[in-house]
Amino acid sequence: MSIVVKDVIKTFGSQKALKGVSFAISTGEIVGFLGPNGAGKSTMMKIISGLLPQSDGEVEVCGISNTEYNENFRRKIGYLPEHNPLYLDMYVKEYLMMVAALYKLPNRKQRVAEMVELTGLQLEQSKKIGSLSKGYRQRVGLAQALIHDPEVLILDEPTTGLDPNQILEIRNLIKRVGQEKTVMISTHIMQEVEAICERVIILNRGDLVVDHPSTDLSALQSGGNSVFVEFNKQTDVDALTKIEGVETVNQKSSTEYEIKAEGEIREHLFNYAVKNDLCILTMMQQEHSLESVFHGLTRE
Questions:
Q1: Which of 64, 88, 92 is nearest to 77 (CA)?
Q2: What angle is formed at CA 40 by the lines to CA 36 and CA 43, rounded to 5 degrees?
Q3: Domain ranges of the chain
Q4: Architecture (CATH level 2) of domain 3-215
Q5: Confidence (pTM)
């Protein structure tokens, strides 16, 4: 396992930010780390990165405890914090050379050139960081997080404030990197998680509420299914209500109905149509998006 978190508790005075959180992430996984503001996501990421000590519990990264915050531990992790602190008066290439020197990398010029190409900074490498757009500053942040070739990459809100084109570019970069590394990404953009991640972990008020092996969380959504159906002519609402599994029927127009049910009812609707000489013109089952499931699990 690249990351092992066991019964981690973090308190700030009388406030308990993390309440015994446990999970493990294998090598090569791209995991979406989600939760509303104040859920404890950034705190957990800082603890894993060794930047913040836990109050109790254990954390290991590539077999090394985060309490051993030594050179070997730091080399295992690339970390991009939410606000991406950069030296704005430094030039891009100069800054990356400094980071390479801090990691005591051999062939620093070659490694910086590789990072510039990987993150698409070729045209910006001779500019001051302060003159760059936010999208390019995020690329610089990713370059510094990757320059020492870490096994684990931790990204806290990597696309905040970017335009749609920049988001797509950073997303594609993360996907390429994730083919070889373990990536833990925190974001409030659910479409980003669905596009990038293979697994979802959700925190709420310091508790782990979901650890699911995919971004399809439909099975976790309470409230049953909702099916929209349109017949070729009007039918009796009371008769529809008597179909096995149907809970409520909302007639949208003379021939259109929204049916809420417990379990799968489409086969029953087809049988109903045949028995009542009806033709089904449209039938759609409402899919629960990650956003709707997230809201249902974390709302107050």
A1: 64
A2: 135
A3: 3-215, 220-296
A4: 3-Layer(aba) Sandwich (3.40)
A5: 0.75
Q: Which residue has the tokens 């996501």?
A: 41
Q: What is the model's pLDDT at position 191? A: 81
Q: Which CATH class is domain 220-296?
A: alpha beta
Distance CA 145, CA 41 (A): 19
Residue 65 has a pLDDT of 93
Give the burial string for 64-80 (b: 16+ CB within 10 Å, else e). bebeeeeeebbbbbbbb
For the chain, which ranges sit under pLDDT 50? none
- What pLDDT is stored for residue 25 in this prediction? 94
pLDDT tens profile 231-288: 999 999 999 999 988 988 999 999 999 998 877 888 999 999 999 999 999 998 776 6
The residue among 125, 141, 129, 132 whose CA lies nearest residue 93 is 125
**85-112 burial: b if 16+ Cβ within 10 Å, else e:** ebeeebbbbebbbebbeebebeebeebb
